[in-house]
Design brief:
The structure is a homodimer of 347-residue chains. Chain A is of the alpha/beta class. Chain A has twelve helices and 17 strands.
Chain lengths: 347, 347
């Protein structure tokens, strides 16, 4: 079968690999019908060394169950499923607390690719299938597929940013980053009742889409100028919640600059730093809280799915390009060049 | 009148100073009947340079209102009052949200001493008296005075640690630090229903008092050994909430080591660092939250006062020594030597 492999930074190839197959009794074999490239795939695209490659890529997918292991009880051949990016048993202590990204099962984990396989491929073995996969009540050719695919990562991750921040009706929220996750954070803040949503971003096509998702103010400036502009827009006080969807230090510094006393910085951009200012001046003086982490997107599927099915939200609008598997390497390049926001893959 | 001045690290003197008097129409002049030395007073006691001295000391006090400015409406001569360590108008946007330590009034502020005066003295001018001071329904010689005095700082600060952490019934909580604030955090976690309370501390007399306040397990070990012990006591997972009442980096590192996935580190020890690990490994991987800051103790008075008046809680037990004003320098030394936990001053 065909699958995407990253050999090193900038070197993505689609090649023949051994067919995926069931290995453990809790596995499902899924024939992939829709997948995509994630903003987080660009991190290794920038920095991966040859020693770490080749790596199978992709962690967002919808597909048809082709076969299940003998211990899989809730899925059957022919089911259309979405696979959250984190493998989880969905029954352990942490999963029951809706923290599936900290699932304590020894097979549970996440990162680029689902273990030894990836979603940018024709098929995939999904571990802990009963816990991980969620059945979808549509057919693989449904027009809702792009929106449903966002349940695998970007919608749930943006929603996690807003939920971890505890966004409540009437609040003012600043979203840092106009990538797909930032735009999903906008949609999520709006869904939770935010009154003012400031989007810090510089790509007009993206911030325009942000406005359709609920953005009230766009701030293109960065650094001190951007901070001053957000403060001006928020009555001088800053935002109750800052949703940080980038992960680089300047984004954290922006967040510190625009958060209101007693407010919260909620991070879903994977931090590309370890140490950061959190002392008296940084967070402590005004009781600023810090929240967020890898999104337990599995926890949010039941809540968000109905809104997609009835058209209340259209998160699939973040996809602005579609390709087949052979076009994946070009898709990486387009996302890296910012000519594409997010690329949908139809294997 | 007599007042306490710190000239530099280790040099505390009680001297004659000009009598306190009303300066602004919202001031009250308070004759101090009970005051104390705070663990945070030991920071300048260790590090203050002569260039920063002499400074008036003390920010916790109970006293009798002797005179009020013309704009003070809610207090009258003869009222017994407690003064939270932060001056606030209690009516601004932030005060109304119970964040009095971020009060937006230009006269509001806090730190060692209330502006140019201090509580370790015979009298004090308290700014924004209507907002800051709270009337007490007892006489100055009440046996409840030591407990009521803790409303000025340590009880409210310990309670803030637990409240900012969102401690709920049944949780397991680790408190780092067996000083007065740590012990108040124990009492507070117990009050909020924590089932298991682990106290990390090495002073047996203090941890014994901690047990009376609700500690279920004492861990005297520090560093990796202390972390392993707490994890062992908490089923391998760590604590839902870690209340950090020290402020030094090793305490933060202990907190990182013992917090449970999805848990929260709530800091009320003033950070003696600015940068700290909060990246993927530190906080992000397991959605660890960070909370806390200078406690808005004014916000908690109405809630905690009844429990003191009816004897449900006895926070005043943290005072293990009493002195008059002339004994204050020796009190600093005793607290620094750890021969006293907290020194009560009867001017």
């Amino acid at each position: 079968m065909r699958a995407t492999l990253m050999y090193r930074a900038g070197d993505v190839r689609v090649e023949n690999v051994p067919d995926s197959r069931i290995k453990h009794p809790t596995d499902a074999l899924v024939r992939i019908t829709a997948s995509c490239i994630c903003g987080s795939d660009l991190h290794p695209y920038h920095s991966m060394t040859a020693a770490d490659g080749p790596a199978r890529m992709g962690h967002e997918l919808i597909g048809v169950v082709e076969e299940v292991g003998p211990d899989v009880a809730m899925l059957a051949r022919g089911d259309l499923v979405v696979s959250p990016f984190a493998v989880s048993d969905n029954v352990c202590e942490f999963c029951r607390e809706n923290l599936q990204t900290s699932c304590s099962h020894h097979e549970a984990d996440f990162w680029d690719g689902i273990f030894d396989e990836g979603g940018q491929a024709e098929a995939i073995r999904v571990p802990l299938a009963d816990g991980t996969l969620v059945k979808l009540p549509v057919t693989p050719d449904s027009a809702l597929v792009p929106s449903l695919l966002t349940l695998a990562d970007v919608l749930g991750t943006g929603y996690h940013a807003a939920r971890a921040a505890g966004v409540t009706p009437g609040q003012n929220v600043t979203v840092i980053g106009d990538g797909a996750v930032g735009l999903m954070a906008v949609l999520s803040a709006k869904r939770l009742g935010a009154e003012q949503i400031v989007l810090m971003g510089r790509h007009t096509d993206r911030t325009d889409l942000g406005r359709e998702f609920g953005v009230t103010d766009v701030v293109a400036e960065r650094g001190e100028e951007g901070i001053a502009r957000v403060r001006e827009l928020t009555g001088g006080q800053g935002s109750h919640a800052v949703l940080e969807a980038v992960g680089h230090m300047p984004a954290y510094e922006q967040a510190l600059g625009v958060v209101r006393p007693g407010g919260v910085i909620s991070r879903v951009g994977v931090p590309q730093y370890e140490e950061a200012p959190i002392g008296f001046a940084g967070l402590f003086r005004h009781n600023i809280r810090l929240a967020g982490g890898p999104a337990p997107v599995r926890a949010y599927v039941e809540e968000l799915l109905p809104d997609i099915l009835d058209g209340t939200i259209e998160p699939g609008r973040v996809f602005d390009a579609t390709t087949d598997l052979e076009g994946v390497p070009a898709g990486y390049k387009d996302m890296d060049d910012r000519t594409s926001l997010k690329v949908l893959i139809k294997p």
